[in-house]
Amino acid sequence: MANVDKSQKAKKAGGEKIVTKNRRATFDYEIDDTFEAGLVLVGSEVKSLRGGKCELVDAYAQVERGEAWLKQMYIAPFERAVAFPHEPRRSRKLLLHMREIERIDRAISREGYTLVPLRVYFKDGRCKVELGLAKGKKVHDKRADMARKTADREAKAAVGRGRKGDT
Length: 167
Prior knowledge:
Blueprint: H1 6-13, E1 16-21, H2 23-28, E2 29-39, H3 43-50, E3 54-55, E4 60-64, E5 67-71, E6 74-75, E7 92-95, H4 98-111, E8 114-123, E9 126-136, H5 139-164
Antiparallel strand pairs: 1-8, 2-7, 2-9, 3-6, 4-5, 5-7, 8-9
């Protein structure tokens, strides 16, 4: 098992290899529902994603003419793809069932939701995106979340100190 690389270990462990997460999404938005979508990619994009060269900071998804699109996701150009390089921030089609697209479109148009990418990962060799149907948080909600996380962290540290015998 010494010569097995990380991707093979990920396949054996559960079939998912996480490429990147959108940490900002859980801070800025309250996630109500999640969807798993496939991505339509070109070869050099897949190679870059396998290398972990992806950013979801400014990315968002929207429904246009009955199709879901992921916009502003940055995938770094693959170094060895000099003949046919891809555009790093191009719009990429999302593969979802029609029922899911209609449900997302209704939520976005009527209820004021936003569709944000939460993470990009490989599942059984296919690139997937986890999308969250989310509403933006207000400033006071963000402050309350930060205070709660700080209190949880301090309580956990106090319990850890108590187990060690330090006071």
